[in-house]
Design brief:
The protein is an alpha+beta fold. It has one domain: GIY-YIG endonuclease. The chain has a three-stranded antiparallel beta sheet, sandwiched between helices. The chain is globular and about 40 Å long.
Amino acid sequence: MSKKFYVYIILTERNTFYCGYTDDVQKRYNLHVKGLGAKYTRANKPVKLLWQKEFDSKINAQKEEYRIKHLTRKQKEKLIFS
């Protein structure tokens, strides 16, 4: 069985989105909540995990994370809420 990877988007208390990738979404989200996940989420506290998508390889998850990080807010909202 191959390992799965995920891209996820978190809503922060400042109403911004944070995008990342991981092999364990819940564990990573909990680290963000504790202030241990990323510099951005230490300054912008997570409120809710909004979206996630599964990938069969780390490289494909990283490519999708990169693509999402370059989207406009409106494009991210369309991805999350559609």
